[in-house]
Amino acid sequence: MRELSLQIGTADAWAECIVDNFDEFILDHAANERKASTMAMTLVAHYPDRKPLMEAMIELALEELNHFRQVVKIIHQRGLVIASDEKDPYVNQLRGFVRGGSDNYFLDRLLSAAVIEARGAERFSILAKTLADPKLKAFYTTLAQSENKHHCLFLDMAHSYFPEQTVDQRLLEWLQIEKNVIEQLPIRPRLH
Length: 192
Prior knowledge:
Blueprint: H1 12-20, H2 22-46, H3 51-77, H4 89-95, H5 102-130, H6 134-161, H7 164-184
Helix pairs in contact: 1-5, 2-3, 3-6, 5-6, 5-7
C-alpha cells in the first residue's frame, strides 16, 4: 500500500476554528462525505470497463455513504438541519488543474482524489486529538484511519493503470498544487 506525504501541514488555527465553530463544521463535513460517495460512483460510471477500479469505487462509495449517515446522526443529535450545498473552494481550485485527454484526465482524477483524501485524513486526525468529547474523538480517529486507506487506494489504482514514473512525477506536481491551494485559502470552519 503506497502512501503520500502532504507538503504542508494544517495550521493550528484551523483546529481552533473548528472547535469554536463545530456546528458549522459538522454540516460541511456531511456535505463532503456525500460528495465523496458521489465522486466514487462517477468514476464507476465513467470507467465501467476497468473492473478493479469499478469494484473498488463501489466499495468506497458505500463506505463514504455510511460516513455520511454517521455524520447526519451527529447533526440530528445536535439539533441541526443539513444546509444546502456550498461550493468547496479547495476542491474547485484543485479541479482546475485536472488535465484534458482521456489518460491525463483519468490519472489526474485518481491523484487529486488521493491528495484530497490525504488532507482529510490529516485533518480528521487533528480533530481526534483536539476535540474534548470522547465520542467525537473516537469517531474522528476512525475516520482518519479510513481516509488514510482511501488515499492509499487512489494511489494504488493510479499505479495499477499507469507506469510508476508517470504516477510519481505527476503526484509531485499534485502535491505542489495542493500546497499552493492550501496556502492561499483562508481558515474557515470547513473540512477544506
